[in-house]
Amino acid sequence: MSHDISPSQAATPPTLEVRDLHTRFDTRAGELPVVNGVSFRLERGKVLGLVGESGSGKSVTGFSIMGLLDAAGRISAGQVLFQGRDLAQLDAAGMRHVRG
Known about the structure:
There is one protein chain. This protein is α+β, with helices and mostly antiparallel strands. It has helices at residues 7-11, 58-66, 92-99; strands spanning 16-27, 30-42, 73-82, 85-86. Strands 2-1-3-4 form a four-stranded antiparallel sheet. Strand 1 and strand 2 form a beta hairpin.
């Protein structure tokens, strides 16, 4: 299957790209994996919905992307790219700017 992509689309990174995201929480009983290998791309002007059962990690995925995990949580693997920028490389002021 081929997809026609214009040169301008090829040069423009997706608005949001999540690559193999893994999020863990430290608990008294040890490390608790909550998000395991989530990946998706969101192109400009598109909408994406996360659907799943209660407790499946939808909210933690969103908090991970936005850098809003509580102190016990951390992204243990993967990347979150916003307009091609790795959000893990931004300081607190940079993340506030991204969040608006």
